[in-house]
């Protein structure tokens, strides 16, 4: 049975994904939920500009389109500073030749520009969309730069689904629906609901495949058959979910080709064992190639793992955006809980101030005795006959009035006592509500602190303030405090410098692989009979030309080849396992990279485990409050 999938990406990005699904035998339908619309009248003033700034691949594409349409000259010769590697790749495709990537966010781009350029050398031109993340202009203007921000395009959400898609959804024809951003996911939910209950019900037969938890949260309102989230916010991880739907065992049978597959990082050669004649021939070829390169006859290929790094940096930007949205929601929850707690505390104080202390009720006995004495005296006076027929003494009326007043006072006090007895349950309820709200606030604070720490860890930035804040907040809960200490201990010593990201580790690996190969060769050269000109050439070849792919063997070069393959696929743990099997001088060469990789694995594990612990803490705090509802 052929599966059917619905792709919600803009048309510019949907084609390679549709091709990947087609390779897997899946019939794909593209339903763009965002349309990039260039603004034909946008002003592009490049006079006196020293560099171009791009914060999205769409900005690059629209800039190239408008510049070509207007026959602008010299724009491709300007230096380009891109926010990330995906944007830098789009700039290369557009024909720019002087490109530098900040490999981060808007703040990283501002730091890169400030480090590279002189504010007095000319203005900066920022090709932007109608909606931007961060204040790039503000950051650079603080550093003394002049920024010309030009809005070149709008990203317009779709206002309705196509009739064919509506019909297919209503008939339950789609098995998979793929989502890549919270904005497109929210747009899909709105359009499905506006299409009617039949279309909404049709989603019950489809599985939503989401790039991140934030995307999954945006589509969760629809009645899906299932909602699945990629293990990493990147296209290969989402395609892993597709393979799972197909029943493909990724460990046993390699999946079909995927888009954005990294270029080979090193020369592809036969397995390590080669004849001496073959090695001599290879040496001559390499020498000739080196001469050709020196003379400018050879154009160097793209850098190692460039495409993979681009994809992962792009997904990291999406992850940071999702984390920022989650953080804003957490802040709103904490503020709401804090306000509710303050209101309850004020109400409780007011009630307690208006009543006497329960431990000291009013003493009515003196008042009761006084009334009894007056009644007795009044009775005695009334029983005496009037002298000479004169009326009763005038004080009888006074005593009667005083008696009535005292009775009224007694009745009032009794009423107050009855009311005080009814206030006791209310006071208990208010005390419990305050305790519950306080517990809820503490749980939300832990969630917020964990989110802060996770965001810092994901970007590779220093995280000392975030770790200290989480440790302080978690101290109120011994169980959570113990989890924080245990989970962060493997990388806590890096709080002042940060933990390298997966993209950083991928970029550094070729140099590490070369160092491992060199260490292995030095160990071999130290063996008896390893001297001589030819052996030195062969040793140089063994260092420069390495095997690639899943080659067999336990020697350092074979393990490096397998580790490189695993790393390019984003399987950092598998790459680390391969390098742990190396010993001797090669292990020493691998140690710095390996330590950073293990710290990254520990940081990723801690971020996930702390999120679960914080969620459990918040659920436990909410349980008592809901028990009586």
Total helical elements: 21
Rg, please? 37 Å
Shape: elongated
Low-confidence stretches: 250-307, 386-391, 625-629
What structural category do the secondary elements indicate? alpha/beta
Mean pLDDT: 75
Number of strands: 11
Give the spatial strand order of the biggest sheet: 3-8-7-4-5-6
- Strand portion: 5-15%
For the sheet with most strands, the description reads: 6 strands, mixed
- Helical percent range? 55-70%
Distance between the termini: 48 Å
How does the SSE layout of this entry go?
Blueprint lengths: L3 E4 L3 H13 L3 E4 L3 E5 L10 E6 L2 H13 L10 E3 L2 H9 L5 E3 L4 H11 L6 E7 L6 H7 L4 E11 L5 H8 L5 E4 L2 H13 L2 H6 L4 E4 L2 H7 L6 E4 L5 H12 L29 H19 L11 H48 L11 H19 L11 H65 L4 H11 L3 H11 L13 H24 L7 H12 L11 H13 L3 H9 L4 H43 L2
Key structural traits:
629 residues; alpha/beta; 11 strands; 59% helix; 9% strand
TL;DR?
This protein has 629 residues and is α/β, with parallel strands linked by helices. Helix content is 59%, strand content 9%.
Describe the overall structure.
This protein is of the alpha/beta class. 59% of the residues lie in helices and 9% in strands. It is built from 21 helices and 11 strands. The protein has helices spanning 11-23, 57-69, 85-93, 106-116, 136-142, 163-170, 182-194, 197-202, 213-219, 235-246, 276-294, 306-353, 365-383, 395-459, 464-474, 478-488, 502-525, 533-544, 556-568, 572-580, 585-627; strands at 4-7, 27-30, 34-38, 49-54, 80-82, 99-101, 123-129, 147-157, 176-179, 207-210, 226-229. The strands form 2 sheets. A 6-stranded mixed sheet has the order 3-8-7-4-5-6, with helices on both faces. It has a 5-stranded parallel sheet with strand order 2-1-9-10-11, with helices on both faces. The radius of gyration is 37 Å and the shape is elongated. The model is unreliable at 250-307, 386-391 and 625-629 (pLDDT under 50).
